[in-house]
Design goal:
CATH architecture of the largest domain: 3-Layer(aba) Sandwich
Distance between the termini: 44 Å
Protein name: L-fuculose-phosphate aldolase
InterPro entries: Aldolase_class_II_sugar_metab, Aldolase_II/adducin_N, Aldolase_II/adducin_N_sf
Pfam families: Aldolase_II
Number of domains: 2
GO molecular function, one term: metal ion binding
Keywords: Lyase, Metal-binding
Helix content: 25-40%
């Protein structure tokens, strides 16, 4: 597969690609939401009114010319006025997404603004969020109240009793902000069901962002034998699968696989995970990186885990909605829900924020055969294992366990498998 270069895609193709992702991710409905792009001529390409978002084609996209004339088979979205208003007040914004994703709608109807300090990249990607008072959908008044928020510098706005609207420098930037903001809200909501979400200080986020990786030296030359290429294929498949199943979002997630000895392959930063391709993967060999490529900022951690744990051959570092509920509340995730959960995971301890920074020993002293996964507070879950598919299976089991616990929180007190039953499992499956 060749990597998509969205900058060379026609606006109508970008729009159909992204609205399809939004719809299939369950972040909008057949009739809900609208997105647009303004091109270099000042023409605005926008989704049509009253056309099924699940089957939208490039030929359905409408162009509203700079002079106000309309090209297309359909009427432009009824919300076109606020798209136009945003572009007029913020010329650097080139793409706008509006939809009604469940978590963001939840906040809009209780009239709350999400605190994006819940996880580092939410603050970095989304920034502070604006709030637009209710106005009639499709009205010029709605365009005015939204534009006022964007004029203040916000790139994402909660629309009272309506949903959200975000802008970006291009369509991928807007989508990443939209997806990350919805994930941020889900994390807050799910965390509130089991405890009290804790937020990072600006200083903690700055410390995270200032962790510019000490880049490994580059190799003089790189080779890609067949077993190395097979690993690239496996990594891409798992990353795409994780995105499809909601176990990774486009702005966050790292996968690595041991190759030979302590050499390994790892995903890069700043590449949309849903579009990651073989050539994006970075080879780490003999303590050096593949020429011309930058590996994940967590490369040091992966490298040390492999060096100290010969039984570990793959690592997934990601954010999933229900596991992050435990991460942001520092609540203990008791995996003694069903036998499979305990057999696969045994224990998932919470590690302090910052324990994943380069040079820290906490995670390295915790990961073991008996503790294959850890939660890093307000950051991520790290899962280790032998074969990559098995590691992914552990991630799925952990997320399903967390989901069951969050959903059960309103029903009553958790009754876990007891110590005697755990010991029976240990004797049968782990001896």
């Amino acid at each position: 597969m060749r990597k998509l270069d969205t900058k060379l895609m026609h606006p109508r193709d970008q729009i159909t690609m992204i609205i399809d992702k939004i719809y299939r991710s369950g972040l909008t409905t057949t009739s809900g939401g609208n997105i647009s792009i303004i091109d270099e001529n000042g023409d605005i390409w926008v989704t049509p009114s009253a056309i099924d978002k699940g089957t939208l084609r490039a030929s359905d996209i409408v162009c509203v010319r700079k002079d106000g004339t309309i090209d297309g088979r359909h009427k432009p979205s009824s919300e076109f006025p606020f798209h136009k208003a945003i572009y007029e007040c913020r010329p650097e914004i080139k793409a706008v997404i509006h939809a009604h994703p469940p978590a963001l709608v939840s906040l809009s109807i209780v009239r709350q603004i999400p605190n994006t300090n819940i996880i580092p990249q939410a603050k970095y990607i989304c920034g502070d969020i604006g709030y637009a008072d209710y106005a009639l959908p499709g009205s010029d008044e709605l365009g005015e109240v939204i534009a006022k928020e964007f004029e203040k510098g916000f790139n994402g706005v909660i629309m009272e009793n309506h949903g959200t609207v975000v802008g970006g420098t291009d369509m991928v930037d807007a989508y990443q902000r939209f997806e990350t903001l919805e994930f941020c809200c889900r994390t807050i909501i799910y965390g509130s069901q089991i405890g009290t979400p804790n937020y990072l200080s600006d200083e903690q986020i700055e410390a995270f962002e200032s962790q510019i990786p000490r880049l490994l030296p580059e190799m003089d030359a790189v080779e890609h034998p067949s077993d190395e290429r097979a690993i690239r294929e496996d990594i891409c498949k798992i990353v795409h699968r994780a995105c499809d199943q909601g176990l990774m979002i486009s702005s966050y997630g790292t996968v690595s696989v041991r190759w030979r000895g302590d050499d390994f392959l790892i995903t890069p930063p700043q590449v949309s995970r849903w579009d990651i391709q073989h050539e994006d993967i970075v080879q780490i060999k003999g303590g050096k990186r593949e020429p011309g490529k930058v590996p994940s900022r967590s490369t040091w951690l992966h490298q040390e885990i492999y060096k100290r744990n010969p039984h570990i051959n793959s690592i997934i570092l990601t954010q999933t909605p229900y596991l992050m509920a435990y991460s942001v509340t520092n609540e203990k995730l008791d995996v003694r829900t069903i036998p499979e959960s305990w057999i696969f995971l045994q224990d998932i301890p919470n590690m302090p924020f910052g324990s994943h920074f380069a040079g820290e020993e906490g995670i390295l002293n915790t990961i073991s055969k008996d503790t294959p996964a850890v939660l890093v507070n307000n950051d991520s879950v790290i899962v280790t294992g032998d074969k990559l598919l098995g590691t992914f299976d552990k991630l799925e089991v952990a997320e399903f366990s967390a989901k069951s616990l969050v959903m059960g929180a309103s029903l009553g007190k958790l009754v876990p498998i007891n110590d005697e039953q755990v010991e029976d499992l240990r004797k049968k499956f782990l001896s």
